[in-house]
Write a structure and sequence with these properties.
Blueprint: E1 9-12, H1 21-36, H2 44-55, H3 62-73, H4 81-91, H5 106-110, E2 114-119, H6 123-133, E3 141-144, H7 155-165, E4 172-176, H8 179-188, E5 192-196, E6 211-213
Parallel strand pairs: 1-2, 1-4, 2-3, 4-5, 5-6
Helix pairs in contact: 1-2, 2-3
């Protein structure tokens, strides 16, 4: 792949890019079993599998995921959806699991690039995940769309970040896993794009990204060293 030229900043999605939703949900399932299925210890592994299957998308409404989970596991606990969502938003950040090769993104800073995170989701939840895995000092800024308004793929959060950084779209590369939000949306604004394929399949309704990587270890090689120019 040809290295990007004229780039000043690299922006990242969070979930399934810098952190791994599958591993996070596996940890959260341990709490689910402890609090809601203590009387069914022989089924804990199966319940964890069902939990992952129901909540794996990250783009479905949590209420719908909970209803499907209730139905499939034969939920008998007195907790209702509201209590479960309170549980989710409290424990989920603590279970956040860093992508194994996330450290590679720091090489971009050493090469002279500005880096930031733009992620969908509520500010408290997303910022909590960031603090749990220790990203706070890695990035120039970390923005959850819940802090500014509409979510990706709406153009507003991308424009907000461009204004915040004082950069033109062609000076930015966006890296993410979800084609409509992380590739198609920033491309429409004139940004460059990199698809991270480790945890998602491509959606053939969309034009491919300019670069594709299956490991974050591949990312630094796409960017020339600005400190040597």
């Amino acid at each position: 792949m040809k290295p990007f030229e004229g780039i000043k900043a690299v922006l990242f999605d969070l979930d399934n890019t810098l952190i791994v939703r599958r591993l996070t949900l596996r940890k959260l399932a341990q709490y689910v079993n402890r609090f809601y299925f203590a009387d069914r210890p022989d089924e804990h592994e199966w319940i964890a599998d069902v939990f992952w299957d129901c909540f794996s998308s990250g783009y479905d409404e949590l209420e719908d995921c909970f209803a499907a989970f209730q139905r499939r596991v034969g939920w008998t606990h007195k907790a209702d959806c509201k209590e479960f969502l309170d549980f989710w938003f409290f424990y989920y950040p603590f279970c956040t699991t860093m992508e194994p090769n996330a450290e590679a993104v720091r090489e971009l800073t050493r090469k002279g690039y500005r880096i930031g995170i733009l992620t969908n989701g509520p500010a408290v939840l997303q910022q909590g995940k960031v603090d749990v895995v220790g990203f706070r000092d890695w990035f120039e800024f970390i923005l959850a769309t819940g802090e500014v308004g509409p979510e990706k793929p709406d153009p507003y959060p991308f424009r907000y970040v461009m204004d915040k950084m004082g950069l033109r779209p062609e000076e930015i590369v966006y890296v993410g896993d979800y084609p409509p939000n992380d590739i198609e949306a920033p491309r429409k604004l004139g940004m460059h794009t990199v698809w991270f394929s480790a945890y998602a399949d491509w959606d053939d309704r969309y034009e491919r990204a300019e670069a594709e990587i299956s490991s974050l270890l591949e990312l630094p090689a796409l960017f020339p060293d600005l400190t040597k120019k």
